[in-house]
Write a structure and sequence with these properties.
heterodimer; A: 411 residues; mainly beta; five-stranded antiparallel beta sheet; five-stranded mixed beta sheet; 5 helices; globular; B: 135 residues; mainly alpha; 4 helices; 33% helix
């Protein structure tokens, strides 16, 4: 299809995806990809998923569900570049009624509610506002849910329900100021163009506290890695909430409502709640704990150039590299252990593209002896928060960020 | 139950066309340097003209079917109103109580138009299906 073609001018100030041939990757057309599968290695089995290139504007993805689309990024993609290519970026929709066409001349964003002036903004209106860009990780609240033990129902993701992009757009604050937020506003609610299939089901909406909405970091993005967004990633406009889980990053955003009271809609009051406990963790079966809406992300890190179960050469030093992110702040350190966590070595951090983005890291470890080898990687963020040694558990399968371990055989 | 089911909007035949310049280049105060940070981590950039292209796509249909078994017709007819079979087939082994809770959520929260008798058949199928297909 030609609709991945980009018609962006006046941008191009910097390369987007170093080392990945971003534009080349985006121009790859969908070809048959029949029969290929990936085993996500989820505990308890039922972990094999098909690879697909059947979705518009997307390359080869792991198919978790066709309708509404749930597409996971194959993990090898994260080894290729610090920014995740648009056509490999994960996809998650709640409801199956998703517009399959967007006319950029007809599109309007409503800004209404507890404001002085109701607005109806075209893309031209939005692009005439002061423009900003920010590198930020977009990660599903339930990324890695499939690794929970005991397992929990939901989208059974491996680790690929995340991605990092350079988002370009306008500050939400500037748009709210244009409308004039009235005194007494407490929250801002966001709604996209998707709709439930069955009448009466809760339309997908999310909200942020008014101070968060006005903090200057929340962005209405019309470019992703310098290109217009793939439709499945929210074309033509997506909310970007740096440091917060993807549930807030409303796609196909066309309605902003300033609220004079707290938002009690289903997706804030009932869904996407986490235990109000350390690491959002409870014991399986536990009840009676308080919950809060999921919010800030926590640090994570991954080895990307070696797969769990891989064979490596004994007797020569082993190059190890990967990605990390701090969650709601930057990466302070990424450490690697080759002895089960008894000792840790610092890794070299790659270029800082912005505190909310992926940070590449790399190191060499001394030549392994023949036999089994386990590598663990741990991110400590700039707030001093490190990944925990034990996995968290909650019934939603949210916020997994345990230290990752891969097992290798040196021979 | 008389729930209204929405179809997919009939936009897919819309012509794809390219619009011209949507906006004129807007001069911004000096913003060339990447170090120009004001509040927050979002950095100002030059607001040059952008041209967006209208998009019209088709989503693929699912060709996945549920394994045969008692109640499979009821499962297919009801569950696929909102989602393709993969959502169910990719679940881990779940207890009967967990499947019951999922079906309850689909009916009462997400308004799936399923009556009590069909709901019981669906739960029975799901429990049996997992028993046969887990591992």
């Amino acid at each position: 299809m030609s609709n991945t073609g980009l018609r962006v001018t006046g941008f191009g100030r910097r390369g987007m995806l170093r080392g990945a041939g971003a534009l080349g990757a985006m121009l790859v057309t969908g070809t048959a990809w029949a029969g290929e599968q990936v085993d996500l290695g989820l505990p308890g089995g039922n972990a094999v998923r098909p690879l697909t290139s059947a979705f518009p504007q997307k390359g080869v993805m792991i198919r978790q569900r066709t309708r509404p689309p749930l597409l996971e990024t194959p993990f090898a993609v994260f080894d290729e570049s610090v920014f995740t290519p648009n056509d490999r970026f994960f996809v998650r929709w709640h409801w199956a009624v998703i517009p399959q066409a967007v006319d950029v001349q007809q599109f309007r964003l409503a800004v209404r509610g507890h404001v002085n002036r109701t607005l109806s903004l075209s893309l031209a209106d939005l692009t005439s506002l002061p423009r900003v860009e920010i590198a930020a990780v977009n990660q599903c609240s339930g990324n890695s849910r499939g690794f929970f033990v005991p397992r929990v129902p939901g989208g059974e993701w491996g680790n690929g329900a995340m991605g990092n992009a350079l988002w370009t757009g306008v500050r939400l604050r500037d748009v709210l100021d244009k409308a004039g937020v009235k005194a007494g506003a407490v929250a801002v609610r966001f709604d996209g163009m998707d709709e439930p299939v069955v009448d009466g089901a809760p339309d997908f909406q999310k909200s942020l506290d008014i101070d968060h909405a006005r903090d200057g970091e929340v962005v209405l993005a019309f470019l992703m890695n310098g290109a217009q967004l793939p439709l499945l990633n929210g074309f033509p406009l997506r909310l970007v909430v740096p440091g917060w889980y993807s549930t807030y990053w409303v796609k196909m955003l066309n309605d902003i409502e300033v609220l004079a009271g707290p938002d009690d809609n289903f997706w804030m009051k009932t869904a996407y709640r986490i235990p109000d406990t350390p690491h959002a963790s409870v014991r399986p079966g536990e009840t009676g704990f308080a919950t809060v809406p999921i919010n800030r992300m926590v640090p994570r890190s991954f080895i990307t150039n070696l797969r769990d179960g891989a064979n490596v050469r004994a007797g020569v030093k082993l190059a190890v590299r990967g990605i990390a992110f701090g969650g709601d702040c930057g990466v302070s350190a990424v450490d690697l252990s080759a002895d089960g966590g008894r000792s840790w070595r610092k890794t070299a951090l790659g270029r800082d593209e912005g505190k909310y983005g992926f940070r590449q890291w790399s190191t060499d470890i001394p030549a392994p002896r023949p036999g089994e080898l386990a590598l663990m990687v741990r991110c400590t963020n700039t707030n001093g928060v490190a990944q925990p040694a034990s996995p968290n558990w909650n019934g939603g399968g949210f916020m997994r960020n345990v230290i990752e371990t891969i097992h290798l055989t040196a021979a | 139950m008389m729930a209204r089911i929405r179809g997919v909007p009939a936009f897919s035949a819309a012509a794809v066309f390219v619009v011209g310049m949507l906006s004129q280049s807007v001069a911004q105060p000096s913003s060339k340097g990447r170090t120009a940070i004001n509040d927050g981590a979002a950095k100002p950039v030059e607001a040059g003209a952008l041209t967006f292209k209208s998009v019209s796509v088709d989503f693929p249909d699912s060709s996945t079917t549920f394994p045969s078994g008692a109640g499979v017709d009821v499962v297919t007819a009801n569950c696929t109103i909102c989602h393709s079979p993969g959502m169910i087939l990719n679940q881990p082994a779940l207890s009967a109580a967990a499947w019951q809770a999922e079906v309850n959520k689909m009916r009462h929260t997400y308004k799936a138009p399923i009556d009590d008798a069909d709901a019981a058949r669906i739960v029975a199928y799901l429990v049996n299906m997992r028993g046969k297909t887990a591992n």
